[in-house]
C-alpha cells in the first residue's frame, strides 16, 4: 500500500523580514516543522505576533518562504503559486467583501474569479448560502449583515472552488459568544464532511472544538504540539477553592472546582462562626489537593473509630446487663 503524501509539509520553515530603518532583520517564523494529512483539522495556536498569520501566508503561497522547505498539495509555493491558490480556500481576517453588492452577488463574483461557469456558480452559491444559514439574506446588501453573518459569508465564499484545504486565520476573533458558537458549528460540519482545515487561533477553547492536532507557536518557534486534550492535560492548571474552617482543619478542608463554585456563597461562608479562610488555588497537577484531601479523610477515620468504639462499648454493656 502506498501511503498518501502529506497535504502540507514544512521542514525547518523560516520567514525573515529584512531590516527596515532602525529595525534589525526579524525572524517571524524561526524553523518550524509540521505535516498535515488529508481530512485533518490542524491548528496553530499562539499569542499575537507569534508568527501564525505569516505561516498561513506562506502556505497560501502569498508570501515567499525565506528558508527551509514547504510543500503544499505536493507543489512548491515558490514556483507553483497559482496552481496551489486555485485549490485552496482562504479566510483572512479582513474579509474584503463588496459592501455594495448583495450576499449572493459576492459569491458569484468570487466564483467568476476562479473562472467557474455561471450554472456551476449558481448551484454552488445556493448550496453554500444554505450551509452558511444565509438563505434569507441572499438578496440583501452585505453592509446590512452582522459581524457573524459576514464571517459566515466569507467562509461560504472561500468554499466556492471546492478547495482541498480551507485556511482560516483567526476565524472568530471579534465575534460575540453566540456568533462564535454558530461559526464553530458550521466549521465542525465541514470537519465532519472531511474538509481539511488549517486554522490559527489564540483561543484554546476554539482549538479544542475544531482541531484534531495543533502546534503551539511563540516567537516563531513551536513550543508544544499534540491533540488539544493532550495539551490541556499537560499544561492546564487545575483551579479550585480551598475552604478552611476553624479549629484549624478540624471539620473539613473543602474543595470546590472553580467552575462550580458560586461566588454568591462567599459572604454566607464568611459569616459562619468557624470560618477561617477561602483561598483560590491554582495547581499544575493534583499534588497538593491529594495531600490536603488526606486531612478530612483522616478526621473521618478518627471520628469513625471513636464512634465505633463508643457504640461497641454501649452494646457490650447492654448485653452484659
Ligand atoms: P500572529 O499572526 O501570530 O499574530 P504574525 O505572523 O502576524 O503573528 O506576525 C509575526 C511577527 O512578524 C510580528 O512581530 C509582526 O510584527 C511581524 N511581521 C508581520 N508581517 C511583517 C512585515 N510585512 N514586515 C515586518 N514584520 C512583519
The CATH architecture assignment of the largest domain turns out to be 3-Layer(aba) Sandwich
Gap from first CA to last CA = 86 Å
* Biggest sheet details: 6 strands, mixed
Order of helices and strands: EEEHEHEHHHEHEHEEHEEHEH
Number of domains: 2
Q: What is the C-level CATH assignment of the largest domain? A: Alpha Beta
Indicate the proportion of strand residues: 25-35%
Strand segment count:
12
- Average pLDDT, all residues: 84
Q: If you consult CATH, what is the topology of the largest domain?
A: Rossmann fold
Number of helices: 10
Bound molecules: adenosine-5'-diphosphate
Report the principal-axis shape.
Answer: elongated
